[in-house]
């Protein structure tokens, strides 16, 4: 079953869009009874773990991929000004309400547990784009690592863990499209190739028994502060649209091939575009720039000292490439609305 955010509204209004399959009924996905969220991706999604690589991961890095169940299950999510790429909680933390509060949180203590294997700076694979650092774990390697260490640990050692009470969330492509924006390739084919590799990894997760998948598409990255200042943004809106079309095609094809999977694509592009176009509806006043002092320890109080007329939460952009924690909070609420309707 494949659900696109916009199509969900059709379900809500009573128009059937899901054909009853003759062979097997998809297990009903229920956000309210979902016990865990397992996340993969890049800096938009990563959380800091006490066993992680500081500023990059919850656990380990490319030179330190192996871990045992005890290490994973005793690992804690750190929340403070430098523990995410947003200066505060990100979308998966708000969505699960796990690791939102300052200090340390054991995922096991959360009503919805967040097991987050995203790595800041990740691209999909080294096949088409280079690693940002030699310790970066690409999406493909995040999922290989999960297959080898994370999944067995959760399945054997986490009380009550079940794949059918778990949602897999993937948000990736942000670094890929940026790193490759100036390549001389046929972009629609190139993006199809990238998403081919992405879905080979999704297939691995399916093989481990996971059936509920949430994909996030690319934000309007042609509207970062840097790109707004250029006459020719890079990536441009056409490229972002091509990537998102490749992702949507692939998600639909994956759902077609796996009738018992629940495949959800959240149109982050549409939601974030709406926020940029009508910022006042979301308490945002600044969509064009970011506050230069965003990473200063006293920024929450002394923003004016850094030439910023308003607090960070009134900005859309946190820095040159990341949205503020406030934007993540709004987005998470909209993702939750989609999940509750699925
Ligand atoms: C993590 O990033 C912060 C800035 O956000 C920096 O001050 C700190 O040195 C970094 N830590 C490491 C280990 O690189
Ligand atoms: C955030 O927590 C990490 C890990 O506990 C610590 O190293 C870092 O200094 C903290 N940063 C701030 C700004 O409190
Ligand atoms: C990783 O890169 C750093 C800095 O570029 C370098 O000092 C280090 O030797 C590299 N590590 C390995 C194992 O290649
Ligand atoms: C896409 O993948 C195909 C098959 O591997 C390859 O022949 C082609 O060169 C790739 N194209 C781009 C633009 O990456
Ligand atoms: C965006 O960039 C692509 C690749 O260079 C190009 O084909 C396309 O025409 C550009 N779109 C716009 C609106 O400039
Ligand atoms: C947006 O932020 C920039 C950088 O802090 C600032 O110079 C500008 O005045 C702000 N614009 C508005 C409308 O607040
Ligand atoms: C995108 O790439 C450019 C260089 O091409 C870099 O300056 C910028 O920081 C990158 N943006 C993000 C969000 O990584």
Explain the overall architecture:
This protein is an alpha/beta fold. The chain has a domain at about 30-270: Rossmann fold. The protein is built from ten helices and eleven strands. The chain has helices at about 5-10, 70-75, 90-95, 140-155, 175-180, 185-205, 225-230, 235-255, 270-275, 325-340; strands at about 1-5, 35-40, 50, 50, 60, 75-80, 105, 115, 165-170, 210-215, 260-265. The strands form three sheets. Strands 1-11-10-9-2-8 form a six-stranded parallel sheet, with helices on both faces. α4 packs parallel to α6 and α6 (about 185-205) packs parallel to α8. The protein is globular. It starts with a strand and ends with a helix. Residues about 5-25 have low confidence and may be disordered. Bound molecules: 2-acetamido-2-deoxy-beta-D-glucopyranose (7 copies). One 2-acetamido-2-deoxy-beta-D-glucopyranose binds near residues 288 and 289.
Secondary-structure map with pairings?
Blueprint: E1 2-4, H1 5-12, E2 36-41, E3 48-49, E4 51-52, E5 59-60, H2 69-74, E6 77-79, H3 91-96, E7 103-105, E8 113-116, H4 139-157, E9 166-171, H5 174-179, H6 187-207, E10 212-216, H7 225-228, H8 237-257, E11 262-266, H9 268-277, H10 325-341
Parallel strand pairs: 1-11, 2-8, 2-9, 4-5, 9-10, 10-11
Antiparallel strand pairs: 3-6, 6-7
Helix pairs in contact: 4-6, 6-8
Bound molecules: 2-acetamido-2-deoxy-beta-D-glucopyranose (NAG) (7 copies).
């Amino acid at each position: 079953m494949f659900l696109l955010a916009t199509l969900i509204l059709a379900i809500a209004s009573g128009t059937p869009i899901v054909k009853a399959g003759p062979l097997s009924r998809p297990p009903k996905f229920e956000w309210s009874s979902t016990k865990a969220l397992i996340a993969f991706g890049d800096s938009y999604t990563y959380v800091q773990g006490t066993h992680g690589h500081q500023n990059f991961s919850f656990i380990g890095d490319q030179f330190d991929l192996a871990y045992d169940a005890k290490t994973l299950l005793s690992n804690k999510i750190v929340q403070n000004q430098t523990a995410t790429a947003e200066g505060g909680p990100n979308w998966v933390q708000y969505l699960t309400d796990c690791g939102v509060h300052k200090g340390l949180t054991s995922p096991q203590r959360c009503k919805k547990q967040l097991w987050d294997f995203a790595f800041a700076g990740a691209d999909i694979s080294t096949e088409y784009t280079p690693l940002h650092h030699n310790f970066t774990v690409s999406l493909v390697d995040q999922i290989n690592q999960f297959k080898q260490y994370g999944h067995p640990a959760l399945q054997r050692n986490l009380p009550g863990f079940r794949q059918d009470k778990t949602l897999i969330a993937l948000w990736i492509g942000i670094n890929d499209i940026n790193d490759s924006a100036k390549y001389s390739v046929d972009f629609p084919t190139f993006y199809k190739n990238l998403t081919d590799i992405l879905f080979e990894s999704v297939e691995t997760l399916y093989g481990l028994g996971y059936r509920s998948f949430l994909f996030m598409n690319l934000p309007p990255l042609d509207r970062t502060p840097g790109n707004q200042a250029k006459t020719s943004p890079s990536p441009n809106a056409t490229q972002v649209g091509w990537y998102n079309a490749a992702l949507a095609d692939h998600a639909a094809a994956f759902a077609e091939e796996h009738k018992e999977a629940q495949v959800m694509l959240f149109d982050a592009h549409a939601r974030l575009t709406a926020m940029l176009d009508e910022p006042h509806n979301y308490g945002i006043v600044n969509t064009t720039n970011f506050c230069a002092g965003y990473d200063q320890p006293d920024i929450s109080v002394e923003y004016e000292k850094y030439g910023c007329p308003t607090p960070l939460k009134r900005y859309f952009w946190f820095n040159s490439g990341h949205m503020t924690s406030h934007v993540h909070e709004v987005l998470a609420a909209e993702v939750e609305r989609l999940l509750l309707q699925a």
